[in-house]
Give the backbone structure.
Amino acid sequence: MTPAARRPRISIVQAGLHVGETVEIPGWLYNLRRSGKIAFPILRDGTGILQCVAVKSQLPESLFESVKGLTQESSIIVTGRIRQEPRAPGGYELDLENLEIFQRVPEAEPYPITPKEHGIDFLLDHRHLWLRSRRQHAVLKIRHEISRAIRDYLDSHGFTLLDTPVFTPAACEGTTTLFEVNYFDHEKVYLTQSGQLYNEATAMAFGKVYTFGPTFRAERSKTRRHLTEFWMVEPEMAYATLEDVKQVAEELIVFVVGRVLENRRAELAVLERDVSKLENIKAPFPRMSYDQAVELLHQKGSEIQWGADFGGTDETLLGEDFNLPVMVDRFPTAIKAFYMQPDPERPEVALGVDVLAPEGYGEIVGGGQRIHELDLLLRRIDEHGLPREAFDWYIDLRRFGTVPHGGFGMGLERCIAWICGLEHVRETIPFPRMLYRTRP
RNA sequence: UCCUCAGUAGCUCAAUGGUAGAGCAUUCGGCUGUUAACCGAAGGGUUGUAGGUUCGAGUCCUACCUGAGGAGCCA
């Protein structure tokens, strides 16, 4: 085809804007249905899916034959006229006039993911190809929407994005769940499990800050809620109390759900998500103390003891009566990290809050108010058996203009799994990293 | 780390201890409106690995390997 004859190149999502025009669309063959004299190649281009029609009597013999011989996921550029067509999925159809085959997938080694069912092991082994399927495409479009909504909310509420390091010399919280990096000679270095301690430093410099990036937990967990590498957004605010933290977490969640409902209805439909459950997500969320939560759990038959953390089934039980995320605060100080501010009126509980997602998706947010008094922080570090010298700079923050402050971490993949209504977080990230799976 | 379950054709799965099977995918043929298209035919197997019991093992036993779900722990 000479450059002069070249048609305007569009993407499938724009098809409705070009009805009656002859256009060129680059993409991949999603599927092909054919009979003797008519063929329906279905084109996929990353923005949508479009059915094309090739009629034998209206095309050169060789062109019709090459359409009939197309194989799944061959890369092709189609040219033709766009038409409204109620029989076609999506409502538009392209009358094929020309076909350029960039690469024809050979039938000796056909595309492995067929339109029929596959097991999870096979799909995860072929994750690099699985990403092309409709469901995965929908999930990852929603992931993008959620990430963007999180940034938009924080950016428009005075937060500054300040990235925190992935290599860290000390544990932020626990000490047993760190990935060690064997490279640095002068000291032991690990992959971050939270950017929070650094956020406290940047919050004292910028007021309201956040970090949004990957975190790593070497927990030998093997459940539908766990990844070894996952993304977390962590806002932190100077001059903030537990109540401020709870309010921001609530507003952020409401905003994110609203954005997905506004912009990703089609993707939710592909996932067959019950959107009425999402439309219900409005402030205020139910709030309860840890004490009240334990009492409620006892009523529901749980055998949880005061002082213990919630198990997976406890989290589900707590959420089941409300169709909203539930905020639980004032956990026992003993089970929380050393930096959590004890309640001044009741030091055995800490000013921390967890947000539990509805429908059994578990904890999506954890946070609270941090200790701002130097003496108290030093005492807590000692009580946890931690070396003061590892936290020298962190302790410094309490020496130079310390203020009450707090923040939280929100797990991106758990949010996506909840909003999409997925069984497992492994589908919420392009290339999941799990206990027994690091490829592709 | 512990508990439970699974491994048979490229994929999803059948097969009472007695000749290894189907659907999809692939190839060939048919079909002018298909919607995971349909109809007919063909090719395709070291039943995860190694031992054992048995006249005979995909099936029973032991160990190992690989994976899945869950517990603990966590977002």
User: Anything to note?
Assistant: Chain A has two domains: 3-103, 127-428.
